[in-house]
Here is the input.
Amino acid sequence: MAVIGIESSAHTFGVGIVEDGKVLANEKEMYRIGTEGMIPNDVAEFHIANSGTVVSRAIEKAGVSRKDITGVGYTRGPGMGPCLHVGLLSAKTLAKRLGIPIVPVHHGIGHIEAARHFGGMKDPVALYVSGGNSQILKLDAKPFAHYRVLGETFDIGVGNMLDTFAREIGLDPAWGSTVDRLAQSGRKYVELPYSVKGMDFSFTGLMTKAVTIADTLSREDLCFSLEQTAFSMLCETTERALLLTNSGEVSVCGGVAQSQKLREMMEKMAKGHGAKFGCAPNEFNADNGGMIALVAEQMLRRNLDVALDKCDIEQRYRIENAQVVR
Ligand code: FE2
Here is the structure.
């Protein structure tokens, strides 16, 4: 079965096509964030303008015909309402036109399952780090198979923190990835607020302090100190979760997992405890439709499709409320 997955929760409109766990295509168009950040309606308009092209491109790249597609999955949430609606509409249109079943997918489960799939892992402690989310998760069987949140941010996601910081100090482009690039040339560490409680953490105090001292040191050293502090907080809390759960596997996923520095720090921590470390290629750490298609294929195999008129979006869709199937 070839399954098409549609992702539109934030700046990316992504379409992936999967057949028997193999990703045949993973196409996307990404809204460029300006100094004003992401305005949901503007991003949704971008998605509307690009949705048809990206779907056609993915089908062409996969080398399948429309009649070969046997199911469609879409991101139900969490994410920005207007953006999620565009993905829902695209998925419903395909389901109706092609007469195929449709299934809603949790965005975070897409990231976690992609890391598990490509990292060759069974049941890892998962650090999920993106713009809107920063959580430490582990599969729990009861009362139904779901990801239990062991730790999470008290305020904003680490990706949101890095993006906002980039805008506040005037980096161009104003992305966390620019902070990550500059940090690679930083050498001097300046102590910044380190905020961890058990397996939870917070980032706003750290960001405010880093913005306040921005004129006192080089951009490179500032970005280096900010990343070093934030990523150390994530490693410490994930390490605590690893020891608590006795798991032999650790994964990292989500947009911020594109940082080589974070992956290296996490791998070092995992190996220090004799645990296996794994993550997906960066194409799947960034938002993409392929991860949604991977999960949708599994769900459709279990006949978890939903009637067209019951399909909806959920901006604050909590991961522990989403059923996990394998
Ligand atoms: Fe994401």
DSSP finds ten helices and twelve strands in the chain. The pocket of fe (ii) ion is lined by residues 107, 111, 130, 254-255, 287 (CB under 6 Å). The CA atoms of residues 254 and 285 lie 5 Å apart.
